[in-house]
Amino acid sequence: METQNEVLLKVDNLVKHFPIYRGVFQRQVGAVHAVDGISFDVYKGETLGLVGESGCGKSTAGRTILQLYKPTSGSVDFQGVDLATLKGEELRHMRKKIQMIFQDPYASLNPRMTVGDIIGEPLMVHNVATPKEIEERVADLLNKVNLNPAFASRYPHEFSGGQRQRIGIARALALQPDFIVCDEPISALDVSIQAQVVNLLEDLQAQFGLTYLFIAHDLSMVRHISTRVAVMYLGIIVELADRKTLYTNPLHPYSQALLSAVPVADPVVEEKRKRVILEGDVPSPVNPPSGCRFRTRCPIAKPGVCDASKPEFREVDPGHFVACHLV
Amino acid sequence: MTETTPTGDNSLLEATFATRKIGWFEKFVGPENFRILVGLLKTPASIIGLSLILTYVVIGILAPVIAPPVKPNADPYSIPRDGFSSDPKPMGSEWKRNKPPEPFWYKPLTGNDKWVHLFGTSEGQYDIFYYVIWGVRTAFFTGLLVTFATLVIGVIYGSISAYYGGMVDNIMMRLVDVLMILPSLLAALILAAVLTPRIGKSLIPVMTALIAFGWMGYARIIRGDILSVKERDYVLAARVVGVKDSRILFRHIIPNAIFPTLVLASLAIGDVVLAFAALSFLGIGTEVGYADWGQVLSFARNWITALDQYWYIVVWPGLALVFFVMGWNLLGDALRDVLDPRMRGRS
Q1: Statement: residue B345 has pLDDT above 60
Q2: Does A122 touch chain B (CB under 8 A)?
């Protein structure tokens, strides 16, 4: 897939802290630094993979971009409009262009609504179609995601996980958005169904020229679907490069460790492969380490360098960004 | 890419698992609640409960036929009294004064010409049969109205608390805690006792008191459920597609949060009637002679040392009360069983 270099979404120094309140008077005693200053561009028509281990802030980043959480600071520039400054009706209208696919297909569909109502609701609330047109659009959308249009009158509990996920995709497509945040859309599904859903996402991307932010922790799936990949650790992006560069030549020690965890389907290679094993746990996002966030687990960390200052997120090669003092 | 789903011929599948028709009722109450209602119609306890309640409904509706008032225009809720003597008369003793017309069913059923006190009379010669029959209406009226009012107050209060959250929620819920610390029957007793001299003896002071101290449970339950539903992905999804806040609240949150509260309310009707009878028994509430089970029970207090003789004053209204409350409790128990997730898929 070729990317055009037209920037669709520009995230600049996005920060999301969740305050922690304690005591009778609900004083703020600290904050969870879920997303702590991330910047990246998303080009039109590409799939940007966002990977990282559990709790590193991937989902929060996705939701903050969508303004489901109000950003603590930073801007999200979408087609020249800063989403972070929009409120109420303006934001509601922008939602037509940015959609989301959720992780858990069992939780993301209202059990009290029929599939037709769920998929048709976006069209209804934006007053873009008459009830008759909505019915036709819903049938059309169900077809697009390879479901029988007659399913529109059924309830979500009558479907399997993969089918539900496709209903969620149909809902996201209803308003013909430009950009879709896929928040681990396949991690709750069986492996066989995962391929089905990923293939569907790729088909739809080709058909409608969609742009994806694909959040996942499955590295091989990200490798399959992404144009470029960003690696997150404890609220920051540590490395961002195109897929090929990142998977063959990761520069950040965390990316190296992460990628070395992917098994190779060849016993001879697997035998000789050197694995980077990280010690300890991810530090608490309430009190992140000073300087480089990764220094507490980094195999090559140098005292006096890594704990002194935050590494800058700089471009070492064209299109290859790394946040590390030692690269 | 390859075909991702079998979209072709599904006839064999449909022959094995016939596609179930979804009626308007199922659509209206939602699939999960429909399953609960169907489950209710299949549980023995709820069938007994429902038939008891239905029997009372029929008695309540047919009260003017079963126990006709003395004069057509007279207030049927004030019980006809046969004289003023203080000694209760036994069952089957003859009506002398103030005799209501015999109902049509009486003669063919008993072969007796004369209208008698079927269940005897209480102190002051109030007819106990009339008390039992017309008391059904009072029980339904108070039970349903108090439950409905407490439910509405509790749901509104709890929703506001959950919706605004933060400090508002904190203050509102602490108020609920304070009210819940009070023993509700005692608190209602005091409030009713304070209100009665101001409003006069009627159903109103007691009902007001029961409402005032009965809504906190609903507020707590609905608040918790709204807080949990609010965080579900489908609510988030509704926000992503740009659904307005009011529609999110009424279409996505409340329909998914209100059911446990409704179950709680159905369980409470019996308790409300029991609490009402208790207050009546203690002498707070309606005027003497008003059709109310608790009141006729209170008549038995003075004759408690000779209950072997005057047992009928306690037994008939007592049974009426017991079966009424039992009906609602059986229904509530069955509802709880059906709501148990482990029961899922069995009915």
Answers
A1: no
A2: yes
3-class DSSP state of A250: coil
| Cβ–Cβ contact B322 with A under 8 A | no
B164, B241, B248, best to mutate vs chain A, most A CBs in 10 Å? B241
Q: How far is CA A12 from CA A68, B129, B181, in A?
A: 17, 82, 52
**What average pLDDT does this structure show over A86-100?**
89
How big is the CA angle at A16 (ends A12 and A18), to the nearest 5 degrees? 175
* Residues in chain B within 8 Å Cβ distance of A107: 232-234
Residues in chain B: 347
pTM: 0.75
Which is more confident, A245 or B39?
A245
Looking at residue A2, its pLDDT comes to 46
Sign of torsion, CA A275 A276 A280 A286?
negative
Percent over 70 (pLDDT), chain A: 99
- Residue A295 has which token pair? 């220094």
Other C-beta atoms closer than 10 Å to the C-beta of A38 total: 24
Q: Which of A254-268, B61-75, B214-228 has the highest mean pLDDT?
A: B214-228
Radius of gyration of chain B (CA): 26
* Token digits of residue B248: 């999110």
A175 touches chain B (CB under 8 A): yes
ipTM of the complex: 0.85
Tell me which amino acid residue A312 is: E
The answer on pLDDT for B4 being more than 60 is no
In angstroms, rounded to a whole number, what is the distance separating the alpha carbons of residues A234 and A285? Answer: 7
In B, residues 248-277, which contact A (CB 8 Å cutoff)?
Answer: 251-252, 255-256
Sign of CA dihedral B277, B283, B285, B286: positive
Nearest Cα residue in chain B from A92: B242
A108/B31 touch (CB, cutoff 8 Å), yes or no: no
Q: How far is CA B190 from CA A19, B207, B269, in A?
A: 45, 13, 21
By C-alpha distance, which of B293, B291, B347 is closest to B316? B293
Q: Where does the pLDDT of residue B12 fall: very low under 50, low under 70, confident under 90, or very high at 90 and above? A: low
Predicted local confidence at residue A264, as pLDDT: 81
Q: Please tell me what DSSP assigns to residue B61.
A: H
Chain A residues close to B2, C-beta within 8 Å: 199
- How far is residue A257's CA from residue A251's CA, in Å, rounded to a whole number? 10
Whether residue A99 and residue B241 make contact (CB cut-off 8 A), yes or no, is yes
Largest CA distance in chain B: 96
Residue with tokens 């979804």: B22
Residue A17's H or E segment, with its range, is strand A7-22
Q: Is the distance from CB of A253 to CB of A236 less than 8 angstroms?
A: no
% of chain B with per-residue pLDDT over 70:
90
Name the one residue in this structure whose structure tokens are 């992780």.
Answer: A103
Residues 82-121 of B with CB under 8 A from A: none
Instruction: Please give, rounded to a whole number of angstroms, the shortest distance from the CA of B155 to a CA of chain A.
Output: 20
Query: How remote is the C-alpha of A150 from its chain's centroid?
Result: 32
Task: Look up residue B343 and give its DSSP letter.
Answer: G
User: What's the pLDDT tens digit per position in A154-167?
Assistant: 888 888 888 999 99
Tell me: the pLDDT tens digits for B186-206? 999 999 989 888 888 888 899
Of the candidates B186, B195, B188, B194, the one whose C-alpha atom is nearest the C-alpha of residue B211 is B188
